[in-house]
Amino acid sequence: MENHFPIRRIMDENGHIINSDYEEKITEKLVKEFYRHMVRIRIFDRKAISLQRQGRIGTYAPYEGQEASQVGSAAALRENDWMFPTYRDHGAAMTFGHSLRNILLFWNGRNEGCVPPEGKKIFPPAIPIATQIPHAAGAAFAERKKGTVNAAIAYFGDGATSEGDFHEGLNFASVFKAPVVFFNQNNQYAISVPFNKQMNTKTIAQKALAYDMPGVRIDGNDVFMVYFETLHALERARKGEGPTLIEAVTWRYGAHTTADDPSKYRNQSESSNRRQEADPILRLERWLKNMGRFDEKWVQTIEEKAAAEIDQAIAEMEDFPPADPAVIFDHVFAEPTWQIRQQKEEYLKQMGGGR
Amino acid sequence: MENHFPIRRIMDENGHIINSDYEEKITEKLVKEFYRHMVRIRIFDRKAISLQRQGRIGTYAPYEGQEASQVGSAAALRENDWMFPTYRDHGAAMTFGHSLRNILLFWNGRNEGCVPPEGKKIFPPAIPIATQIPHAAGAAFAERKKGTVNAAIAYFGDGATSEGDFHEGLNFASVFKAPVVFFNQNNQYAISVPFNKQMNTKTIAQKALAYDMPGVRIDGNDVFMVYFETLHALERARKGEGPTLIEAVTWRYGAHTTADDPSKYRNQSESSNRRQEADPILRLERWLKNMGRFDEKWVQTIEEKAAAEIDQAIAEMEDFPPADPAVIFDHVFAEPTWQIRQQKEEYLKQMGGGR
Amino acid sequence: MKTAVEAKTMTLVQAITDALDTMLNEKEEVLLLGEDIGKNGGVFRATDGLQAKYGEGRVIDTPLSEAGFVGAGIGLAVNGFLPVIEIQFLGFIYPAYEQIMTHASRIRMRTMGHFTVPMVIRAPYGAGVRAPEIHCDSTEAIFTHMPGIKVVCPSSPYDAKGLLIAAIEDPDPVLYLEPMRCYRSAKEEVPEGKYSIEIGKGNKLMEGDDVTVITWGAMVPETIKAAKLMKEKNTHCDVIDLRTLFPLDKDMIAESVQKTGRTVIVHEAHATGGVGNDVLAIINDTSFLYQKAPVERVTGFDAPVPYFGFEDHYLPTPARIQQAIEKVMKF
Amino acid sequence: MKTAVEAKTMTLVQAITDALDTMLNEKEEVLLLGEDIGKNGGVFRATDGLQAKYGEGRVIDTPLSEAGFVGAGIGLAVNGFLPVIEIQFLGFIYPAYEQIMTHASRIRMRTMGHFTVPMVIRAPYGAGVRAPEIHCDSTEAIFTHMPGIKVVCPSSPYDAKGLLIAAIEDPDPVLYLEPMRCYRSAKEEVPEGKYSIEIGKGNKLMEGDDVTVITWGAMVPETIKAAKLMKEKNTHCDVIDLRTLFPLDKDMIAESVQKTGRTVIVHEAHATGGVGNDVLAIINDTSFLYQKAPVERVTGFDAPVPYFGFEDHYLPTPARIQQAIEKVMKF
Ligand SMILES: Cc1ncc(C[n+]2csc(CCOP(=O)(O)OP(=O)(O)O)c2C)c(N)n1
Ligand SMILES: Cc1ncc(C[n+]2csc(CCOP(=O)(O)OP(=O)(O)O)c2C)c(N)n1
Ligand SMILES: [Mg+2]
Ligand SMILES: [Mg+2]
């Protein structure tokens, strides 16, 4: 099946546009916009890792290497669309307008981290693998029932395709023609388990055939391919043509999470090779250089801006009022049950009495 | 995709062999053997329905119309293979050597009904839909690990393909090249839900593509197609080439179970049409007639023999020693826990004290 | 509780249909989802006629995929709908357990109320109707141990309608258990139109000063039978139908036990880990000094619900309930 | 219990590795299955080195598919193998709940012993290690309410090895819970080679006549802390580590409570529906007349285990345990 699902790309590793259909659409403005977003989320990612190392946040899941997949797909969304990310997709969430402070709060074990900015339909990151896929199908189905043109996007990894919820979510969406894009980031590992132990197929895109749904395999490090393909899938969705499965082939350079040691299960030289050759940011840099439009100053400016924004978010996260333990009781039900009232009262009494 | 998965057949509705590759293989002996099995299980099915109507057994799931699928597939198994049936596959189980009495006991709410004859590796019928699919993958994987040539067959319906366990079982088997045949009887309904509401695809066979596993769509009422295709899939399995998905397109004439009223959700005239045209037994009769080998006496004999065998089994079922309530405590664990010992003792005391 | 004027005599399952009809009519956000609920009207006919009346857009046959449609129900619920999901039998809810455990019950908490799941899951449950295995489970306790979801279980047509309407109007997920054995076993006057029964409140079915007997669902008629027989023997039972299994009606339990000092709990679920133990804990916490005898529990055994040939042996009977009442009386 | 001669000092997680190594070595039917257990040695390194030692045929990385590999494990178990399955965190066992509930725990019953499932499911559980949400659940009660499966939970390296060997040798399915908080918090002498600890037997960790304190898993060290502090105040606790959550050690519980008349139960799971209530039921059934005070339960709250920023507030602490001990003493 592999040859039926070639890895499609618009821009090659050297920053050349290899699909002339898109030549006009790829403007300096767009390149710079994507570049800026990718730099911003990469700086965030690195900062977050160092915060974790310093004990300022908890376990963290980095996405470095997957920026093109996350930025390209999120940029294709419209204001009123829904996003269902995993723990590794806060790059996409930030691109779509999530609050950096809140994302940091999430990684610091605070519920506020799951609250999106008002009006932003971003679901909390799915921790149990693949469970968000049926949610996205349902939320998209709701939009269809309401008769809007809004769509949903669900993010998930290669490992997630093995779960029953992947199958049930895609089947549900295909039966009800829900306007949803199933956006798979095939970073080729589920923690330590490589793609070829996860499944017998060489592609994830072909799994769409099981639902008579379009499935495409794209270079997940080519931000343009990601962007235009997601845009296309969203258009189909908005027109009532149903869901699409996109497999964005990519790679995470680093560890699964800060609690993981990738050297246990793979040779990390692959990551450094990919950094040299297939890095999504480098690729845009090469385009800019090829076009003679690379401007170090500009790069410096956007880097500084991003760093400042992130530092600001970190400060806000750290200045955030300390956890009020009562919060653990306050959102279980709309109205607390007697158990919760009683337990809260007793607990506060004990707290008051000093521990 | 439908055209990639045409419904394959060897014998047409008029009993003509339309695939010359098989002409030699289809002997009078084989035809009569299959005919005999199908008649036997059909008589059983009708008897069971009437037993249920008389209150002599509980709710019953009939398979009339699906005899070719069940007989053809079960006949392809070898002695030491494993069978994982559902509640509707006791036609296959009987063909593979299950005890008729025990099958009747199952439908009469007795645990003995799940016990296969010694040495017969027939699992109890799966009641929760699709749950047997991973079992079959695991049992087959075990055979592979032991280095035998034994294989497993898992039966399931069209509705079952929507469950996560279908997906997870097929993925597991494909990754570990488990020697298992996933035998789907697409009878086009899951209780009242028709195929086209169950999935967006026109075939089930194509779902095999999601696992890079061979998938074939066959006429489930053509016992030869079923037999030879299952044989082929089992051979692949035995040779270490992994699992196969077979979609046998068929139809149940009657109700989902004796508790179901099909006229609520479909026009039963479809069933009578199919009875005239596509009946699996009729088709063999036509072959025999075409060949001038149809022998009413012989038919009468096999019918009488089957009826006698079934009557005998019914008598054995009804003569079976009455339920000893203690059995509900005796097989929870190898060694009963104190709870079970205590509850059993108290219960027997209460029973003794007269209720 | 507001009661409409007109009333009709109906069975419990008819009362469920009536409640669904009432709410489909009242709120267009209400959607029914499940297997065979459309043309077929559900395997118990609980949704009979509703698809014809409200259309395929409101009464939706789903693929055979409990995790899928409960998960999608969560998506519908956070996006403005009020899904009422039928699980064909409680014993088939397990594939959806993860969705209920990690999402339906937690999304409010996880997002501090930003997203909520006003969803109802209806599920026929229990033994005694000669159904095949797994169809007869009574596993409410795996949901009462799950913060963020309420669990209710009516035993009469009147309660069935009122509780289902309350469940649909509840802003949080509710598991609504339907005792199959009671579906058609009795009829009762049920008001037309909308009324609701407060979730969390039990119902005193008989008054007596000697023993408190606490039960719910399909064990209610069995308990009433036993209590009536005991009355003839001059032992008077306070019979409580809990109606809600989470949160339990602590006040009603405590008040009754403090009056009688003797308690029998009856349920068909396994003894170990059954909701009966939560009742026991309430008694321990509120009424220790009032207790004149240890609490007796009459329950299903710590064995899987057996094949139907044996289910009468598994289920509590009036005889077993009476013996327990006598035991606490004699203590 | 046979104890080998040599011993090594090790942590709880090392004792688990040692038990797996021992059994992989002893019985070729033993297979390990799970996510990331191969090269990676498991996310907690519980299987570290075992794939290198026993090969990919014995220590098997599975696809990310809990229902799939637990279901396949059932197939392996009925077909002659002894699968030991790792669920990465207990909070991720829910997709496999149906397979465990309707098959693993019932196949012996369903077939009158013709087919059996000698399978072990290992699962790290509990809060207090600053893990992300869902990773911290302590939902043992949804398995103790499931006839046909045993549930064990060691709190020390010695017990961890002995119980895991017993679980692997048990002819029935066993859920083996691993308190993450104890994985590396203490070391202890662990005998080399094979020995086992009987499933169903608790362990008396401290002797005292005043109060019985019953707990298990990660709450053991907290309880010991509290009991030691109480000892300084001259209140002497009988501290029981249950070790097995189904079937509970009824005799040890009854004996102790009949001695002290006062009981505190400590667990990190939610109060409602927690295994603590089963302990309460045993006390009710066996020791009613000995009780001098209502049982106190110190538990996680009836709220989802919170994000780790708040988990210290959710978990029972020595201070809360002490207060409960004081409360039952003062009653
Ligand atoms: C149901 C479930 N099982 C196991 C885990 C533990 N776990 C967390 S991430 C992960 C791997 C996921 O791999 P993939 O889907 O490829 O996503 P990636 O992490 O590569 O982005 C696993 C096994 C989980 N979170 N949920
Ligand atoms: C997990 C689960 N959900 C629901 C049911 C109820 N149920 C029994 S049979 C059935 C339909 C099955 O359809 P299909 O797989 O096509 O098999 P068929 O009955 O047509 O042979 C349903 C929904 C069940 N047994 N298990
Ligand atoms: Mg991955
Ligand atoms: Mg079918």
Automatic annotation (TrEMBL), chains A, B:
First and last residue of the signal peptide: none
Record InterPro entries: Alpha-ketoacid_DH_E1_comp, DH_E1, PdhA/BkdA, THDP-binding
Keyword set includes Isomerase: no
Reported cofactor(s): thiamine diphosphate
Reactions performed catalytically: N(6)-[(R)-lipoyl]-L-lysyl-[protein] + pyruvate + H(+) = N(6)-[(R)-S(8)-acetyldihydrolipoyl]-L-lysyl-[protein] + CO2
UniProt domain Dehydrogenase E1 component: residue ranges: 35-324
EC number: 1.2.4.1
Keyword annotations from UniProtKB, A to Z: Oxidoreductase, Pyruvate, Thiamine pyrophosphate
GO biological process: branched-chain amino acid catabolic process
SUPFAM superfamilies: Thiamin diphosphate-binding fold (THDP-binding) (SSF52518)
GO MF annotations, alphabetized: pyruvate dehydrogenase (acetyl-transferring) activity
Pfam families: E1_dh
Subunit structure: Heterodimer of an alpha and a beta chain.
NCBIfam families assigned to the protein according to its UniProt record, in alphabetical order: PDH_E1_alph_x
Known function: The pyruvate dehydrogenase complex catalyzes the overall conversion of pyruvate to acetyl-CoA and CO(2). It contains multiple copies of three enzymatic components: pyruvate dehydrogenase (E1), dihydrolipoamide acetyltransferase (E2) and lipoamide dehydrogenase (E3).
Protein name: Pyruvate dehydrogenase E1 component subunit alpha
UniProtKB/TrEMBL annotation, chains C, D:
Superkingdom field: Bacteria
CDD domains to which the protein is assigned, alphabetical: TPP_PYR_E1-PDHc-beta_like (cd07036)
GO molecular function per UniProt: oxidoreductase activity
SUPFAM superfamilies in UniProt: Thiamin diphosphate-binding fold (THDP-binding), TK C-terminal domain-like
Domain Transketolase-like pyrimidine-binding: 10-185
UniProt keyword annotation of Acyltransferase present: no
Swiss-Prot/TrEMBL keywords: Oxidoreductase, Pyruvate, Thiamine pyrophosphate
Cofactor: thiamine diphosphate
Protein name listed in UniProt: Pyruvate dehydrogenase E1 component beta subunit
Native species: Cytobacillus firmus (Bacillus firmus)
